[in-house]
Each structure stands twice: as C-alpha cells, then as structure tokens.
Model the fold of this input.
Amino acid sequence: MASQHFSCGQNVDDNDENNNHDDRGGSILEIVISDLPKSNGWRKDGLILYQNCWFPFHVLPNVLAFQKNFIPKDDDIIMTSFPKSGTTWLKSLLFSILNRRNYNNNNPLLTTVPHHLVSFFEFQIYANYPHNLHNFTTMPSPRLVSTHIPYASLPDSILKVSKSRIIYISRNPLDVIVSLWYYASGHPDRLSDEWTIEYFVDKFCKGETEFGSYWDHVLGFWKASLDRPEKVLFLKYEDLKEKSVCQLKRVAEFIGLPFSQEEESEGVVEQIMDMCSLNKLKNLDVNKHGEFKPKLHNKLFFRKGQIGDWINHLTPSMAERVNQIVAEKLSDSGLSFRMS
Done:
C-alpha cells in the first residue's frame, strides 16, 4: 500500500517542537499508514492497528479527532458496545428513558432509525471533522451519544476529567459472531461475498475484528465497572431481554432519571419496553425501507435478536473453539456468559 497520511487535528507527539499547523490554527497529526500494521477486514478498506486496537481504516481519523477534541459535559451519557451486541436496541431504550416526558404518542423512534437519534462519535459526529459536528455542540443536555471504541482508547477528557457516565452492553460472543456475519454479509462496503462463517469465526478468535479483540473490549469495560461503578454501568444483553423491567429501572437510576412510583404504577416501564421491542422496531416503515446512508439499509440493523440463535449457524467445533477462548480469557475476571 502506498504511503498515506491522516490529518486529524492532533499531534503524534504533543512535545514535538516541529509540529505543523493548519490554516485554522489547529495542530496536525500525520500518521504514516504504511508504518502501522494492517489486516483484512470484511470491509473493502481493511483494518489498521492503533493503540492495540484494530480500527476500520476509514474510521481511524475520526477516532483521533474524537480523542483530541471532544469536550464532555458532566451529564453526558455515553453508550458503548462491541459491534452487534445489542447496540441498536439499547439506543432506542436509552432515548426513550431520557425523553419519556417529552413525547406521548409521537416518539421519534416511530419515524427515525435509532442511529440517527443517538449518533456514533466515530461514524457520524467526528466524520469530516472539523467541518461537520453533526450539531453535536448544540444538543440539549443530557447529551446521549455512542461509540464502539474500547475503554482504553476513550479520550482522557471522558475517563479522567468529566463526570459523564458510560453504559456498556455486552453479549454472548457466539451470538455476536452470527450477528456480525449477517451484518457484514449484507453491508454495501463488504469486501466480497466469499466470507464464509468459518472464516469469520477464525478472524474473531484471533481478535482481528473491527474495534479490536472482543475479549479485550468486554474486559476493559468490565474491569472499569468494578473499579468505578459510579462511572461505568455494565449490562448483559441476555439480562436485559429476560429481566427487562428490573434492568431498565437499573439503567434509569444510573443516569439519574429513576422512574417514580407513579410512573411504575402507570406502567411506563412496560410501555417503553413495548415501544422498543425488536418486533415493533423492525416492522416500522422507516426501518423496513429507510437508509442509514446510501445503500446501507436500516433493516440491516434489525434481525432476530434471539438469545442462543448461534446454535443454528455454528458447528460444534466452532462453538468449542470460542468456548475455550472464553474460559481462558475471562478466567479470574468474575465475568461470565451463558454459552449454551
């Protein structure tokens, strides 16, 4: 690959006296792509290793701009996840919790895909930075935003400065693999139609996936939730599905908007769960026919959402390989997933 550079408003070394500057007065980061490790991803542009994490090639400049320039507010709510772990569903739930007093029967979820209501830092807000901040700076508080970036790569402004809160959703890795494979297979930017699920499992087990190793990703947020429970809330997709009311109340309390006794008696929690059920969301016209971006159809974000659907797609040997890695990587961490 020819030598290329990213220009993202950040320095390789902030102590370098020879830093260049652009015409807006900001410092320039130039990372020579040919010097960073690369790997084939399912997207055409591949993966690139930065800060021990595999990022989609086209996303790395957005990540760097986010790391350098994001100024959080103390009441920001940052939803985090490994891809295909329940991201779309949790976005709809969080949006509905935050806005439950603002909308009656006209919830914007009825006409807008959740990813346009809760924007990604790396795919939307800091894409084309600094020319387009997606109206982020003018968003009303509390601002609800999301990211797939691992804990260790989040900006220091989030981790060390602000009181903003982080909500992480995790999911059984076997179901994550299947959901990822279906998503990649239908994505307009996919490298080819020849990515078998066997190949996908192999890349997943080696940690060569978008936003890094699954094991490192979940453990980073899990450990942070133990060390800083007031800062990081760790959720499991399976618990959210099977203990919905309890988990939704837990989320509302964490973000400082607990349900009142009156709301609980009126069934507000159940109404939110019904509004955000996968069956309801996937059958909305906007999610059946709309596009998140050109040729990327909203329906690709909504599949089955079932627990344990992996058994219909993965062979016993594939599942055993993943299970062995789970046992090894998560041992002594206190974190476990129901694998069968």
